[in-house]
């Protein structure tokens, strides 16, 4: 299927996002997502970043994706996770969670960790602990060092959901 990604050959639909168009095959998309089962010839997905849409579509053809656009790997995987939930692609959601786990375990000390947590808490439903639980676990494990980061302290003030989850996690560790 890889060779048919964004190729004219047998393409029967177009996904458009912020002016960028991807030639797609409805059979490929609808086999992995209920959302695309009723897709017509043109599907407009203008609300998401086109690199995240591209990752979603690439996954549907190649069963993998990469962050090739220079964005924070942690944030990118969180965005892919959120998009996979929205468009009902469970296999992509699982892969994005694993890629997020790997990225956050190695990248928690980076400056974009607070931005990543903010992205996770703003883009996932409250009852979806997939990425939230991972972010809390990493933050709890590394709390002493993270509290030295002003952006992290600001995050605790601005994200009551994350702060509450941190308190619950820290109190259960005692």
From TrEMBL:
It holds the Pfam family BTB. CDD domains: BTB_POZ_ZBTB_KLHL-like (cd18186). Residues 11-61 form the BTB domain. It comes from the Eukaryota. PANTHER family: BTB DOMAIN-CONTAINING PROTEIN-RELATED (PTHR47843), BTB_POZ DOMAIN PROTEIN (PTHR47843:SF5). This is BTB domain-containing protein. It comes from Parachaetomium inaequale.
């Amino acid at each position: 299927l890889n060779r048919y990604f964004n190729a004219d050959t047998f393409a029967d639909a177009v996904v458009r996002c912020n002016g960028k168009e991807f030639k797609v095959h409805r059979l490929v998309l609808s086999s992995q997502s209920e959302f695309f089962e009723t897709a017509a010839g043109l599907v407009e997905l203008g609300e998401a970043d086109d690199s995240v849409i591209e990752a979603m579509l690439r996954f549907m053809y190649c069963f993998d994706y990469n962050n090739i656009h220079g964005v924070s790997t942690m944030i990118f995987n969180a965005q892919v996770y959120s998009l996979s939930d929205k468009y009902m692609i469970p296999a992509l959601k699982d892969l994005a969670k694993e890629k997020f786990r790997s990225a956050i375990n190695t990248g928690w000390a980076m400056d974009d960790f607070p931005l990543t947590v903010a992205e996770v808490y703003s883009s996932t439903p409250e009852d979806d602990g997939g990425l939230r639980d991972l972010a809390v676990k990493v933050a709890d494990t590394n709390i002493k060092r993270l509290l030295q980061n002003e952006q992290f302290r600001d995050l605790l003030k601005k994200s009551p959901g994350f702060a509450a989850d941190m308190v619950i996690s820290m109190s259960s560790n005692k």
